[in-house]
Amino acid sequence: xxxxxxxxxxxxxxxxxxxxxxxxxxxxxxxxxxxxxxxxxxxxxxxxxxxxxxxxxxxxxxxxxxxxxxxxxxxxxxxxxxxxxxxxxxxxxxxxxxxxxxxxxxxxxxxxxxxxxxxxxxxxxxxxxxxxxxxxxxxxxxxxxxxxxxxxxxxxxxxxxxxxxxxxxxxxxxxxxxxxxxxxxxxxxxxxxxxxxxxxxxxxxxxxxxxxxxxxxxxxxxxxxxxxxxxxxxxxxxxxxxxxxxxxxxxxxxxxxxxxxxxxxxxxxxxxxxxxxxxxxxxxxxxx
Length: 288
What we know:
The protein is an alpha/beta fold. It has a single domain, classed as 3-Layer(aba) Sandwich (Rossmann fold). 35% of the residues lie in helices and 19% in strands. It contains 11 helices and 9 strands. The chain has helices at 3-17, 26-34, 39-43, 79-88, 101-114, 151-161, 181-184, 187-191, 200-210, 239-242, 258-271, and strands at residues 69-73, 93-98, 119-123, 136-142, 162-175, 214-219, 249-250, 253-254, 278-286. A 7-stranded mixed β-sheet has the order 3-2-1-4-5-9-6, sandwiched between helices. A two-stranded antiparallel ribbon has the order 7-8. Helix 6 (151-161) packs across helix 9 (200-210). The radius of gyration is 17 Å and the shape is globular.
């Protein structure tokens, strides 16, 4: 990924962080609940932590325990960090990593609203983690690794920072079969976090190549059409959209209003059964 494209990713991801998008909107809540968050979980954290960009709920299956150190790759506004913090307790720590300063700032504000003292956030790429070797018990992530240009580097970093016996519990999008070219290069496919995804087989191979001894990729069979529920909210500048150099831009912003984006997304979902090609998956891995 060139520096120019990386700048675009940070710019557009930052636009999400300073937007009014939040769990106050029914469509945003609906997306989160469609991918596994309970109403009680969402009510327990600031609405500003939910941006409607999830594809699962990793803290629900990470089996976090008091005293553990958990790291969230691509923490965004802090949704999963805030849910993880009570699980690991005051003797543990929940650490968020994100590449965009505005998102880190939003996450820190949300943590302050919760009065949490066992959380910290770092500005960094997930392929170069600012953490020591064998320093974490668990790594979670939510619909972010599919956007990384060098996934093998991410997998190596995950392995490096985990303690022996440490585990991975990740929600992500993976491909069940190759995408048609018109979907792979489509703006709305990028918005839906599909075009950057790799196959389930490649995902498993990448984790095993990094050193993980036990790897399991589970299709959750969640309906990816859930993303169409975010109405009247701009998701044009999501990390997935920003990662493509081919997307239409107007004055530095993604073209089209939120209404036009979601009408277009609904049309894409009518033209293609995206669920035939991609899946929301739970990724499990164990470091020997």
